[in-house]
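Example 9 (inverse folding). The structure is encoded as follows.
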């Protein structure tokens, strides 16, 4: 779901499989296809004014970055379903319902890499709201500092495991 301070990333099996397929494509056939495009563009002549070549090289840089990100994510992944916290605390993989500024809000605490979060918003445990509720239990009140400097009060109403 998301990276913790220990560097472990929790993912559902579906998310892991999807990310692994993306990694396999990008690091195999994707690299080959892009290398061919670069070679074709190189054959067009003067590289200084060859927009196709420069675009392909830029795409190659982005693709290599994504490959490195995926490799790290997959190597550090803990795969499985979110286990309900025995203590009822908000953990990675929790679906959290809070009262925020007088409004009820429900979100998944984790990583956007999970993909389909069942229509839920996803907040990282590193976000102001995510870090404020991480480790809290239903009924607890906490506040966090918004980017604009305001203190925002939050009450944790419910904590449930993400069932994907």
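The amino acid assigned to each position is listed next.
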């Amino acid at each position: 779901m998301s990276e913790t301070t220990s560097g472990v990333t929790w993912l559902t099996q579906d998310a892991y499989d999807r990310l692994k397929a993306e990694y396999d494509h990008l690091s195999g056939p994707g690299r080959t296809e892009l290398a061919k495009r670069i070679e074709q563009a190189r054959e067009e002549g003067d590289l200084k004014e060859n927009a196709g070549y420069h675009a392909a090289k830029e795409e190659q840089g982005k693709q290599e970055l994504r490959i490195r990100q995926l490799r790290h994510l997959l190597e550090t992944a803990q795969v499985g379903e979110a286990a309900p916290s025995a203590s009822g605390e908000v953990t990675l993989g929790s679906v959290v319902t809070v009262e925020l500024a007088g409004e009820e809000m429900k979100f998944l605490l984790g990583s956007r890499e999970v993909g389909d979060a069942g229509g839920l918003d996803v907040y990282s445990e590193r976000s102001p709201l995510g870090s404020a509720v991480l480790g809290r239990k239903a009924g607890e009140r906490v506040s966090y500092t918004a980017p604009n400097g305001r203190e925002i009060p939050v009450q944790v109403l419910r904590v449930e495991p993400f069932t994907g």
